[in-house]
Design goal:
Elements: H1 39-45, H2 50-55, E1 62-67, H3 69-72, H4 81-96, E2 100-105, H5 108-116, H6 125-149, E3 154-159, H7 161-165, H8 167-182, E4 186-191, H9 205-215, E5 220-225, E6 231-233, E7 239-241, H10 250-253, H11 268-280, E8 284-289, H12 295-300, E9 307-309, H13 323-330, E10 336-340, H14 342-351, E11 360-365, E12 372-376, E13 382-387, H15 392-398, H16 404-410, E14 424-426
Parallel strand pairs: 1-2, 1-5, 2-4, 3-4, 5-8, 10-12
Antiparallel strand pairs: 6-7, 8-9, 10-11, 12-13, 13-14
Helix pairs in contact: 5-6, 9-11
């Protein structure tokens, strides 16, 4: 489903980061057919030298840059103005080169804690939200001052997971972000920590960055941290940077350490998990050191910096990952699951069918009609997820039955499927 039409990018001159030798880039329309959307290229790149895959980063037109709190904050807790200035220059250079840029910035809570003289990160939510309220305005004021020096206009976008889970608000957020990009404005995205609670939080800004990249169908996501990328032991047990990571597995995550600091949440595990999600949706990801000068220029130039996770070939049996399926796949919290037999598994993965009650063998969790549920095969693998037409009680009643029995039990208006294929996303590629 295509939500917006392709539109040319003609921003007013005073609203662009521009130089005399730069002409505006065309708007990156939904469904943009760039190198990053060619799964076949990246599938072959997985067996190529990683330098070959890195060269493809130069083709990126829409870039999401996530800046972690530790990148922006000194060890003593004070904002690192020099580093922030350098990053803004780096981002502005991307815009002058004709790329669209979205910034996902941490630092609001850290800035607020510093302003309030609080040295230890509070454990209670109201104090954290107070710090966010104080720090958010300070953070945006700093960005506005620095980007203005670069002749760039910024726009603030505050989101919660709840905003993107609801379809109408999801589309509104997407349309606003695209409109900002259309006019050459750099969106500065942050979680709305002042109102966020556990039920509506993304968890950390790595997850927010990943979902922002999915929201606007970005070509490239750069996660800036304070290390040189993902590290893992080599054959001699020495920790080495991994320049190219074709896939994020449980073994990969076993090598991660750390879960953030007083000024941040998450850690390398969070970055890899978020990177894997974005890659599955067709976005290349680089985890790199944000404390190095010109790091973004190095990334798009194909330099051997950080860790590159390429886009993964997506399952296509049920029509691929259009905008609606992206929304289904990664903007909901699963409320339960159903276990299916081998016949149902093959119908989903190989033939792109809807989930029928006859193939369901077990129902887990308490969910309502319209909730997201996981579909698990007999081996316990989550193969798909989707929006269910029935509650857990109704699904329990229908499991194992043919579709003709549905209306006998639940009435003439009842749907024929537990999950229609339009509301279903495959998470496991079909066996070849």
């Amino acid at each position: 489903m295509r939500v917006l039409d392709s539109r040319a990018y003609f921003p007013p001159p005073h609203r662009r980061c521009q130089s005399d030798n730069t002409r505006p880039v065309q708007a990156h329309a939904p469904g943009h057919s760039s190198l990053f959307k060619r799964a076949s290229f990246w599938h072959s790149a997985a067996v190529m030298p990683h330098q070959t895959a890195r060269k493809a980063l130069a083709a990126s037109r829409r870039v999401v840059v996530k800046i972690g709190s530790r990148v922006l904050v000194q060890r003593n807790g004070r904002p690192d103005t020099r580093r922030m200035t350098a990053l803004v220059k780096d981002i502005a250079a991307l815009r002058r080169a004709g790329r669209e840029v979205i910034v996902v910035s941490s630092g609001a809570i850290a800035s607020g804690l510093q302003a309030l003289g609080i040295k230890k990160k509070p454990a209670d939510l109201p104090t954290l939200q107070m710090a966010a309220a104080v720090g958010q305005s300070r953070l945006m004021a700093a960005y506005d001052r620095l980007f203005t020096r670069q002749k760039c206009t910024i726009g603030q976008v505050l989101l919660t997971h709840d905003d993107l889970e609801h379809r109408r608000r999801h589309l509104n957020a997407r349309n606003t972000m695209l409109k900002l990009l259309e006019h050459g404005i750099i969106p500065i995205v942050n979680e709305n920590d002042v109102v966020s609670v556990d039920e509506i939080k993304f968890g950390d800004n790595d997850a927010l960055a990943s979902r922002s990249a999915m929201l606007v169908e970005a070509d490239l996501l750069v996660l800036l941290t304070t290390v040189n990328g993902f590290h893992a032991p080599d054959a001699k047990g020495r920790s080495r940077r991994v320049p190219y990571l074709a896939d994020v597995t449980a073994d990969t995550l076993s090598h991660t350490q750390g879960k953030g600091s007083i000024f941040s949440t998450g850690g390398m595990a969070s970055k890899l998990t978020s990177a894997a999600e974005a890659a599955r949706m067709g976005t290349a990801v680089v985890i790199a050191n944000g404390r190095k000068d010109d790091i973004l220029q190095q990334v798009v130039a194909g330099a051997n910096v950080g860790t590159l996770i390429p886009p993964a070939p997506a399952p296509t049996a049920n029509g691929g990952l259009n905008l609606r399926r992206r929304w289904v796949a990664f903007f909901h919290h699963a409320q339960g699951k159903v276990t299916v037999d081998d016949g149902a598994r093959d119908a989903l993965l190989l033939r792109g069918k809807s989930l029928l009650p006859v193939g369901i063998r077990a129902v887990t969790g308490d969910f309502d009609a319209g909730d997201l549920i996981e579909i698990v095969d007999a081996a316990g693998r989550c193969i798909a997820q989707g929006l269910t037409e029935f509650s857990s009680t109704e699904t329990q009643l229908l499991k194992g039955l043919k579709s003709g029995k549905i209306r006998e039990l639940l009435g003439a208006d009842a749907p024929d499927e537990v999950i229609h294929r339009d509301n279903l996303v495959l998470l496991t590629p079909p066996a070849r």
